[in-house]
Write a structure and sequence with these properties.
Layout lengths: L3 H10 L7 H10 L5 H8 L6 H6 L3 H10 L5 H21 L2 H9 L17 H15 L5
Helix pairs in contact: 1-6, 6-7, 6-8
Length: about 140
Amino acid sequence: MMNATDSRTLEILGLEVPDEPLSLRQAIQSGFPPEVLPRIMNYLKLKSAMVPKLVGISERTLARKRHRQTRLDPIISDRIYRLARIVAQAEMVFENREAAETWLKRPNRALGGGIPLDFLDTDAGALTVSNLLGRIEHGVLS
């Protein structure tokens, strides 16, 4: 059984929720369809210039993959999943999509004045943001 964050993450990406967590790993290893990236960028109302920074794929490569209908590579798919997972976690913490989006885009003192979204380009940064969201969820001043 998949947890609520993973289920919401897949909903944000427009992907089916698999029956088992191992299926999620296999889906990432097989590569997501290229449509998931524009979907999450639109969902967050982000400019396409953020794409290379957040997940490491150029707009041109993405357009080529969409045109040829080829899947994204597993590394890019994993980065997209990481981004969507943090978005889903923020939505669950703030209980509101707009509040989560606002929080992800604003400078945060607990991140040294950095913007949470900017931290999502690495796994270490995503973990920092995830931990911060966990502290907020549990009422720890952050």
